């Protein structure tokens, strides 16, 4: 069974350009402020979520393993 991830978007950083929504549309959604929310961390494989995090232009996406707290990004 795949490990669960905790995915958090820092709204002090997110500029809402939508790159993460393009890479992992089942995971990220824009909120009313046009900032990204990680609504469904189980919505894509771990590799896709990390790809979204790495491609965020302002490094607003943090990813860690649920339970252990192991930091995967940044
Ligand atoms: S890629 Fe980064 S800046 Fe763009 S919407 Fe997603 S979290 Fe926000």
Q: Give the biggest sheet.
A: 3 strands, antiparallel
Number of helices: 2
| Separation, N- and C-terminal Cα atoms | 24 Å
**Sequence of strands across the biggest β-sheet:** 1-4-5
β content, as a range? 25-35%
Secondary-structure-derived class = alpha+beta
**Unreliable residue stretches:** none
Please give a structural write-up.
This protein is α+β, with helices and mostly antiparallel strands. The chain has helices at residues 19-23, 46-55; strands at residues 5-9, 28-30, 36-38, 61-65, 71-73. The chain is built from two helices and five strands, in the order E-H-E-E-H-E-E. Strands 1-4-5 form a three-stranded antiparallel β-sheet, covered by helices on one side. A hairpin with a 5-residue loop joins strand 2 (28-30) and strand 3. The mean pLDDT is 96. Bound molecules: iron/sulfur cluster. Residues 9, 14-20, 36, 56-58, 60-61 line the site of iron/sulfur cluster (SF4).
Question: How would you sum up this structure in a few lines?
Answer:
This protein is an alpha+beta fold. It has helices spanning 19-23, 46-55, and strands at residues 5-9, 28-30, 36-38, 61-65, 71-73.
């Amino acid at each position: 069974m795949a490990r669960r991830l905790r995915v958090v978007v820092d709204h002090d950083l997110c500029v809402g350009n939508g790159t993460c929504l393009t890479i992992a549309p089942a995971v990220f959604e824009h909120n009313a402020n046009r900032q990204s929310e990680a609504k469904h961390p189980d919505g894509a494989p771990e590799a896709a979520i990390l790809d979204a995090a790495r491609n965020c232009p302002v490094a607003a996406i943090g990813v860690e393993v649920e339970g252990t707290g192991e930091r995967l990004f940044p």
